[in-house]
Amino acid sequence: MKKNAIPVLSLLLLLLPISPLSASYEEGLKAAEKDDYKTAFNKWHTLAKQGDVKTQATVAVLYHTGQGVKKDYEKAFYWYKKAAEQGNPASQANLGVMYAKGTGTKQNIVESYAWYSLAAAAHKDKKVGNKLWGIEAIAAQLSKKEMEKARQLAQQYAKKYVAKKK
Fold it and tell me: Is the pLDDT of residue 76 over 80?
């Protein structure tokens, strides 16, 4: 296995829920373990298009890193947003990063703060979540008016996009 494959596989495994994987996801994971990211991408992309949140997040990572597919930040942003809107905290955090840096989208610190907030709120300990996702660094860039807008946006997103506990 290539050295750069280990961090990607580790990130992909973090995106997985505890529930059993679908056959196609497992096939993709087996291909990725053999450094066949093109096959893995093809398996996962099909599921992502069908609305599967974990594969949407995974496809986003592959586009973001260029594993098995040409690196494309705009497509990574698209798939992170799809997964984020279904309540995936890792994708919400990645949207925060992309908005903060203007990667794959226009830079927007207000949006960045809103998405980071959702990701941080998903952490059991809010203080840890805030540190983990770097909300303080984003907040320091906002004016008072922008901060108010960002908090309102975060509240709207929380109502729409926070994963419901079952």
Answer: yes
